[in-house]
C-alpha cells in the first residue's frame, strides 16, 4: 500500500518531519500488509497508549480487528476514528484504510467515499484509482468509474487491460465512439507486437470493438458497410466463429443482402444442425415465412442433408395446415421415436399441443400403434409408449387414464426409475402428495448414486411435508462435517430450490398447527377431569410451540434467499477487474446485463411472495400467532401450580435445545428458529428492505407483481401508492376480476373505520372513480356487483377472502371459492382447502 519513504503529503497530510508515532504506525501498516495482524495490533496498542487520538492508528487497529474476525470491536474503533474526523478531512493513509475497511464490510458506497477522500487529500498512490473504479462499477456509478479508469489508464498505459477497461467505461456511459477510438489506438500501438499468449485476449477485444461499431451503426447502411468491412478484416484473428458468423448474417440482413445472409445461416446450420434458431433465421433471410409450400420444400431438403437433426423434422409440424398431411408427418415423427424407445418423445412434441386438434391427432396415431405392441416381444417399445401415453393424458388433465398407464409401465418394468418419477408426478396432480413421495422414494432406492432422483425425491418429500425424511435423504450427498444433517451445507452451496421448498413446507406445517390449535382452544373442557385438563393444557403448549417454531423456520428459510442473491451481487465485485485482466469484455458486459435483472429471477420472486404471506399475516394479526403470544385467559389452565408451569416451560426449552441442531441453517447461527425475525418490531420495513426494494429497483411495469405491491402499500397506509399499483395492473391486464377485487378492497380501506390519512383516502376514491366508476355508484351489495360484473375467479376471490370485513363477508366469499374450485386440479383444491381456510 504505502512505503515508509515517499509518503505523500496533501491538504491534511502528515506534517514534514515525521513523528515517532507516524513511523511506528507505518511499521504496523507493513505488518498488516504481511497479514501479521497480531504483531501489528501490538505496535498500534503501544502508539494508542501514548496518543489515544492518533486517528490513522485507530483506523488501522479497526482494520486489523476486522481481519481477526472480531467485526463488532473493529466497528467500534472505526466509529471512534470517524468521530475525530471532520467531514472527509483525513490523511491519505487514513482515507485509504477506511476505504479498505468499508470494502471489506461490503459497504461499497462508503468505500468509494473514503478512497476519493484519500486522493483528494493528497495521496500519490495511483493504485487507488483502480480500486475506486471497481467499487464505482459495483454500485453502478459508471460516470465516476469512467473518471477513475481514465486516471488509472493515464498512469499505466502499457497494459492492454487498462485500455479495455477505459473503453468499457466509455461504452457504459454512452460514449461509443470514444470507446471505439480507445480500442483502435491500442490496436495501432500493438500492431505486429502481439505474441501467441495474447491472441485470445486480442480476439475478444476486436470482437467487442465490432460490437460497438455495430451498435453505433444502427440502421445506417454506410456505417453497416464499414462494420462488415471491419468484420472481414478481423476474420483470421477471431476464435469465436459462431459469434463472427452470426454478426455477419445480422449485418447482411440489415443491408438488405438477404441471399448472402441465407448462405451464412446455412453455414451456421452446417456447424450446428440442432440449433432451431438458425433454421428460423434462414426462413427470414429467404423471405418465406408466410409461404407454406416453400417452407415445406426447404425442410424436405434440409432433412436430407441433416437426417439425424430434429429441427428439419419438427418445424414443419408447426406450420402445416392440411390435417391429412400433418397427421402423416406427425405419425412418422412420433412412431420413429417410439420404435427407437426415446424417453423424451412426448417432451419433443409437447409444444405442438398448443395447436388446436393436435392432442386428438396424437391419440389417433399412438393408441393403434400401442394396441399392436407386445409387452414381451417388444418390451422397450411397449414401456416407452406406455410412458408416452401417461404423459399425454397427464397433459390433457385426464388424471385417471394417466394413472392407469403409469401403473401399466411400473408393472411392466419395475426396475425403471423414470416410471416411478412419472407415477409420483401423476399422484401429485391428483393431490395425493403422501403417496407420491412414497412412490418416488421406491424409485430412488433403485439407484442410490443418482443425484437427480435423490433431489427429486427430496422435493416430493417436502411437498408432502415430510421434512425429517427429506433432510435425511438430501444429506446423503452432503458433507455433514460439522452438523448432523446437510441443511447448513445446502445453505453454503446456495441450493435455492431446497431452501424454498423447505420454507413452503414449514409454512404449511404452521398452517396445520394453527388449525389444530384453534380446534383445541375451542374445545369445551368444562366436563373434563383434572388430569384431562392438565393433558389438554400440555397439548396446547406443544401446539403453541409448534406454531411459533414452524412460522419462524419458514420465515428464516425465505430470508435466506435474499442473502444468497446479495451474495450473487457481491460476487460481481471481483469481475470488474478480473474480466479486464483476462480480456473478456463481451462476457463482462453480459454479466452486467444479468446483474441488472438479478432480483427479478423466478426463485427470488417465489421467496418474496412466500415471505409476504407470513409478514403480511403477522402485520394484519389475522394469524393465530398474535393471540398465542398473549396470555391465555383459560381459568382452568391457570389453576395449575407455578411449579407445574415452570416444569412444562423447562420441558419445552429442553425440546427446543434438542431440535436446534436439526434445524440449524448456518453453523454460527444465533437465531436458528427465526424468532428474531418473527419479533421484528417493523415487519413491513424488514420485507421492504430484504425483498421489495431490490425487486422494484430492477423490474419494469410490464413484469412487476402489481398485486404484491398493492398489498404492501395498503398495509403501510400509502393508499395513493396502492392506487398506483392498481392503475398499473389495469393498464397491463385490463379491468378483470382481480382488478375489480383490488378496487373493492381499496375502497373498503377509505372508510372512516380505517386509520389512514384523510387526503390519501380522497386520492384513492378519486382514482377508483376514474377506473371503476360503476363500483362507486353501486349502492347495493358491492361484492355481488363485482363478482357478477367481472366474474368469479380463484385469484380475485382469494383477494376478497384475505380482506374480508363487514362489507366483504367471509362466509359468502368462502362459498364462492369452493364453487370455483370444482374447475381446478385436485392439487390446487387440496392446497386451497387445506391451507387457505
UniProtKB/TrEMBL annotation:
UniProt-listed InterPro entries: NatA_aux_su, TPR-like_helical_dom_sf, TPR_rpt
Pfam families linked: NatA_aux_su
GO cellular component: NatA complex
Membrane-crossing segments per the record: none
Cross-referenced Gene3D superfamilies: 1.25.40.1010, 1.25.40.1040
Top-rank taxon: Eukaryota
Keyword terms of this UniProt record: Repeat, TPR repeat
Listed PANTHER family: N(ALPHA)-ACETYLTRANSFERASE 15_16, ISOFORM A, N-TERMINAL ACETYLTRANSFERASE-RELATED
Designated name of the protein: KLLA0F08459p
Organism of derivation: Kluyveromyces lactis (strain ATCC 8585 / CBS 2359 / DSM 70799 / NBRC 1267 / NRRL Y-1140 / WM37)
Amino acid at each position: 500500500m504505502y512505503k515508509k519513504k515517499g509518503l505523500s503529503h496533501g491538504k491534511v497530510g502528515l506534517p514534514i518531519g515525521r513523528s515517532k508515532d507516524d513511523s511506528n504506525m507505518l511499521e504496523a501498516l507493513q505488518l498488516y500488509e504481511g497479514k501479521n495482524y497480531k504483531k501489528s495490533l501490538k505496535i498500534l496498542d503501544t502508539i494508542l497508549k501514548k496518543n489515544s487520538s492518533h486517528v490513522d492508528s485507530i483506523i488501522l487497529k479497526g482494520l486489523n480487528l476486522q481481519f481477526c474476525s472480531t467485526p463488532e470491536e473493529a466497528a467500534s474503533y472505526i466509529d471512534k476514528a470517524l468521530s475525530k474526523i471532520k467531514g472527509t478531512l483525513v490523511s491519505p493513509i487514513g482515507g485509504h484504510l477506511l476505504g479498505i475497511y468499508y470494502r471489506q464490510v461490503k459497504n461499497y458506497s462508503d468505500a468509494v467515499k473514503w478512497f476519493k477522500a484519500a486522493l483528494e487529500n493528497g495521496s500519490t498512490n495511483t493504485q487507488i484509482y483502480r480500486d475506486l473504479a471497481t467499487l464505482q462499477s459495483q454500485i453502478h456509478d459508471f460516470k465516476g468509474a469512467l473518471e477513475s479508469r481514465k486516471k488509472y489508464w493515464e498512469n499505466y498505459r502499457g497494459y492492454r487491460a487498462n485500455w479495455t477497461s477505459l473503453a468499457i467505461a466509455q461504452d457504459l456511459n454512452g460514449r461509443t465512439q470514444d470507446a471505439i477510438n480507445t480500442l483502435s489506438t491500442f490496436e495501432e500501438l500493438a500492431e505486429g507486437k502481439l505474441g501467441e499468449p495474447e491472441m485470445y485476449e486480442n480476439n475478444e477485444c476486436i470482437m467487442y470493438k465490432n460490437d460497438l461499431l455495430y451498435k453505433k451503426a444502427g440502421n445506417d447502411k454506410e456505417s453497416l458497410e464499414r462494420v462488415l468491412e471491419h468484420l472481414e478484416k478481423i476474420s483470421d484473428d477471431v476464435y469465436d466463429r459462431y459469434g463472427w458468423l452470426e454478426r455477419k448474417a445480422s449485418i447482411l440482413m440489415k443491408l438488405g443482402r438477404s441471399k448472402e445472409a441465407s448462405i451464412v445461416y446455412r453455414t451456421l446450420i452446417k456447424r450446428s444442425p440442432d440449433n432451431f434458431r438458425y433454421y428460423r433465421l434462414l426462413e427470414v433471410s429467404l423471405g418465406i415465412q408466410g409461404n407454406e409450400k416453400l417452407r415445406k420444400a426447404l425442410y424436405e431438403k434440409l432433412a436430407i442433408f441433416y437426417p439425424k437433426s430434429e429441427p428439419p423434422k419438427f418445424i414443419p409440424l408447426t406450420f402445416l395446415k392440411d390435417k391429412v398431411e400433418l397427421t402423416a408427418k406427425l405419425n412418422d415423427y412420433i412412431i420413429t421415436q417410439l420404435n427407437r424407445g426415446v424417453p423424451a418423445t412426448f417432451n419433443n412434441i409437447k409444444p405442438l399441443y398448443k395447436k388446436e386438434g393436435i392432442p386428438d391427432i396424437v391419440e389417433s396415431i399412438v393408441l393403434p400403434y400401442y394396441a399392436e405392441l407386445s409387452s414381451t416381444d417388444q418390451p422397450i417399445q411397449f414401456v416407452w409408449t406406455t410412458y408416452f401415453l401417461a404423459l399425454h393424458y397427464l397433459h390433457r388433465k385426464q388424471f385417471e387414464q394417466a394413472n392407469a398407464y403409469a401403473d401399466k409401465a411400473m408393472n411392466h418394468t419395475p426396475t425403471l426409475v423414470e416410471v416411478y418419477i412419472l407415477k409420483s408426478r401423476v399422484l401429485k396432480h391428483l393431490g395425493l402428495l403422501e403417496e407420491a413421495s412414497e412412490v418416488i422414494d421406491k424409485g430412488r432406492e433403485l439407484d442410490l448414486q443418482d443425484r437427480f432422483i435423490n433431489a427429486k425425491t427430496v422435493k416430493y418429500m417436502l411437498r408432502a411435508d415430510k421434512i425429517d425424511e427429506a433432510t435425511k435423504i438430501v444429506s446423503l450427498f452432503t458433507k455433514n462435517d460439522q452438523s448432523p444433517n446437510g441443511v447448513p451445507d445446502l445453505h453454503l452451496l446456495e441450493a435455492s430450490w431446497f431452501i424454498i421448498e423447505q420454507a413452503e413446507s414449514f409454512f404449511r406445517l404452521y398452517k396445520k398447527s394453527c388449525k389444530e390449535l384453534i380446534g383445541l382452544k375451542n374445545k369445551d373442557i368444562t366436563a373434563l377431569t383434572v388430569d384431562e385438563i392438565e393433558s389438554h393444557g400440555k397439548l396446547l403448549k406443544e401446539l403453541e410451540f409448534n406454531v411459533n417454531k414452524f412460522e419462524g423456520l419458514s420465515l428464516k428459510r425465505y430470508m435466506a434467499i435474499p442473502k444468497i442473491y446479495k451474495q450473487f451481487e457481491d460476487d460481481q465485485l471481483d469481475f470488474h477487474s478480473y474480466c479486464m485482466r483476462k480480456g473478456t469484455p463481451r462476457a463482462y458486459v453480459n454479466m452486467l446485463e444479468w446483474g441488472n435483472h438479478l432480483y427479478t429471477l423466478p426463485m427470488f420472486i417465489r421467496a418474496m411472495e412466500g415471505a409476504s404471506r407470513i409478514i403480511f399475516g403477522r402485520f394484519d394479526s389475522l394469524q393465530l400467532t398474535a393471540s398465542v403470544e398473549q396470555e391465555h385467559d383459560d381459568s382452568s389452565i391457570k389453576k395449575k401450580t407455578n411449579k407445574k408451569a415452570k416444569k412444562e416451560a423447562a420441558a419445552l426449552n429442553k425440546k427446543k435445545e434438542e431440535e436446534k441442531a436439526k434445524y440449524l441453517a448456518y453453523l454460527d447461527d444465533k437465531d436458528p428458529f427465526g424468532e428474531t425475525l418473527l419479533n421484528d418490531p417493523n415487519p413491513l420495513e424488514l420485507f421492504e428492505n430484504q425483498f421489495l426494494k431490490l425487486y422494484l429497483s430492477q423490474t419494469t411495469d410490464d413484469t412487476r407483481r402489481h398485486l404484491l405491491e398493492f398489498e404492501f402499500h395498503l398495509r403501510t397506509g400509502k393508499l395513493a401508492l396502492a392506487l398506483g399499483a392498481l392503475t398499473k395492473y389495469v393498464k397491463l391486464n385490463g379491468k378483470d376480476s382481480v382488478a375489480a377485487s383490488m378496487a373493492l378492497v381499496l375502497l373498503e380501506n377509505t372508510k372512516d373505520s380505517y386509520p389512514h390519512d384523510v387526503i390519501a383516502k380522497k386520492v384513492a376514491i378519486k382514482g377508483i372513480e376514474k377506473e371503476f366508476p360503476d363500483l362507486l355508484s353501486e349502492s347495493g351489495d358491492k361484492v355481488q356487483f363485482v363478482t357478477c360484473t367481472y366474474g368469479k375467479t380463484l385469484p380475485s376471490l382469494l383477494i376478497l377472502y384475505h380482506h374480508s370485513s363487514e362489507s366483504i363477508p367471509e362466509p359468502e366469499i368462502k362459498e364462492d371459492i369452493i364453487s370455483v374450485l370444482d374447475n381446478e386440479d385436485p392439487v390446487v383444491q387440496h392446497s386451497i382447502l387445506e391451507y387457505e381456510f
